[in-house]
Every structure is written in structure tokens, then in C-alpha cells.
């Protein structure tokens, strides 16, 4: 299957993308991973992307599209793929359609993970990360530490990252509504979109997504 996963920050796209890709035995292709892989391998596209990032500029669509094209042409993606974070806007969606058409392929589904804005803000703004090890993550409401402000694992100080502040989260949501959300209507016109509630337990969201993909 060839799937695009869409949803606001905090909807759990990364978690669901990993679970769905494993279940369907297809690669999970995320924009972040594409950038990191190309930059670490110092590919021409990676060097180009890094030059924009180092200057504090957005990576142009054509660079992102070229990276995605290269990844989708790898042998493990022959049977399908799950795109997470790409396309990010209608221009990228149109470019993806053109790319797939040249390869005589098409998308099978677009899953729209839906969560109320206040819930998204609560999920992200409530995160606390250990200063000693960023892999130790807690949440003030869902997975609070035994002692406030102290990591259960190593005793390090827990803090809120700058990009997890409520103000930053709401700005990220504005960008999502303005730039990315329009692709939902774009794909609805093609009859590809199924909305899946991102509320509840992770396993329940995965189950709903798999049901949507199977058409049940």
C-alpha cells in the first residue's frame, strides 16, 4: 500500500506511522529521517538542504521532493510506503502525484489523524524531558514523575523544551492549518481521505487506522 499520513503536531503521527508501517511491512518515510539521512551521508541533496537550514531558511520544496523520490525508488519501497510529513503542502502533493504517475503508481489512501486543538496543546506542552538523557520523557498529566521535576530513571532535572511551550505549539498549529491542512481537501477530491480519531490509547488508534485501510 502507498499511504500518506496527515495530522497536526501532537496527533501521534510518528508513533502511528511506525506501528502501521511495521504491521503492513512497508517502509516508514518521514521528512525528518530523509533530511538526517542525506545530511549524515553528505549527499548532494543533503549538503543543499543543510545550506538552507544553516542559514535559518526553509528547505525548498524541490529539494524535499527530490529526497522523497530517491527514497521511494529504493528496493524496500517497491511494495509500498507510508509517508509521514510529506507532502507538507499542496504544491508537494501535486508534485507527488506527478512523480507517482510517471512511475505508473498511485496512492491507495490518505489517513487524517484528528485531535482537538486543546488536546494537542495539552499533549505537547505537558512534556518534560530529562536534562541528563533526552530519551527519558515524562508528561505532567499522563506519565508524571514520582517526584515533580525529577527524572525517575536517573534523578536528573526535568524541563520543558522551548519548542514544547504552549505559545510555540500554537504557532506550529497555525502553520499546519495554513500550509498542510489544505492537502486534506486536495486528496478528498480524489476520494482518498479517511479521518481517524487520534484520541484514546495508542493501540486503539492503530486499530482504527487499520480498519480504515481495510475498508471495514
Automatic annotation (TrEMBL):
One of the record's GO molecular function terms: kinase activity
This protein's pathway: Purine metabolism; AMP biosynthesis via salvage pathway; AMP from ADP: step 1/1
Annotated residues for binding of ATP: 10-15, 127, 137-138, 200
Domain topic, free-text comment: Consists of three domains, a large central CORE domain and two small peripheral domains, NMPbind and LID, which undergo movements during catalysis. The LID domain closes over the site of phosphoryl transfer upon ATP binding. Assembling and dissambling the active center during each catalytic cycle provides an effective means to prevent ATP hydrolysis.
**SUBUNIT field:** Monomer.
Per the record, the similarity remark reads:
Belongs to the adenylate kinase family.
Entry-linked SUPFAM superfamilies: P-loop containing nucleoside triphosphate hydrolases
Which Pfam families does the UniProt entry name for this protein? Answer: ADK, ADK_lid
Give the function comment from the record: Catalyzes the reversible transfer of the terminal phosphate group between ATP and AMP. Plays an important role in cellular energy homeostasis and in adenine nucleotide metabolism.
Q: List the InterPro entries hit by this protein, alphabetically.
A: Adenyl_kin_sub, Adenylat/UMP-CMP_kin, Adenylat_kinase_CS, Adenylate_kinase_lid-dom, P-loop_NTPase
What's the source species for this entry?
Streptomyces thinghirensis
Q: What is this protein called?
A: Adenylate kinase
Record EC number = 2.7.4.3
Q: Where in the cell is it found?
A: Cytoplasm
Which stretches does the entry tag as region NMP? 30-59
Instruction: State the HAMAP family in the record.
Output: Adenylate_kinase_Adk
Provide this UniProt record's keywords sorted from A to Z: ATP-binding, Cytoplasm, Kinase, Nucleotide biosynthesis, Nucleotide-binding, Transferase
Amino acid at each position: 500500500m502507498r499511504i500518506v499520513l496527515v495530522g497536526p503536531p501532537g496527533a501521534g503521527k510518528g508513533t502511528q506511522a511506525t506501528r502501521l508501517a511495521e504491521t503492513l511491512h512497508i517502509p516508514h518515510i518521514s521528512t525528518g529521517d530523509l533530511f538526517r539521512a542525506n545530511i549524515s551521508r553528505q549527499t548532494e541533496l543533503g549538503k543543499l538542504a543543510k545550506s538552507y537550514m544553516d542559514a535559518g531558511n526553509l528547505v525548498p520544496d524541490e529539494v524535499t521532493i527530490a529526497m522523497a523520490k530517491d527514497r521511494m525508488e529504493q528496493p524496500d519501497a517497491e511494495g509500498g510506503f507510508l509517508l509521514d510529513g510529506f507532502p507538507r503542502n499542496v504544491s508537494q502533493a501535486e508534485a507527488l502525484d506527478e512523480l507517482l504517475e510517471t512511475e505508473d503508481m498511485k496512492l491507495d489512501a490518505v489517513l487524517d489523524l484528528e485531535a482537538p486543538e486543546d488536546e494537542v496543546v495539552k499533549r505537547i506542552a505537558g512534556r518534560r524531558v530529562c536534562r541528563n538523557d533526552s530519551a527519558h520523557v515524562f508528561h505532567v498529566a499522563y506519565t508524571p514523575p514520582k517526584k515533580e521535576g525529577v527524572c525517575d530513571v536517573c534523578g536528573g532535572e526535568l524541563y520543558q523544551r522551548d519548542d514544547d511551550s504552549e505559545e510555540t505549539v500554537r504557532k506550529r498549529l497555525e502553520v499546519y492549518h495554513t500550509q498542510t491542512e489544505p492537502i486534506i481537501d486536495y486528496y478528498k477530491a480524489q476520494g482518498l481521505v479517511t479521518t481517524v480519531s487520534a484520541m484514546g490509547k495508542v493501540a486503539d488508534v492503530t486499530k482504527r487506522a487499520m480498519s480504515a485501510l481495510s475498508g471495514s
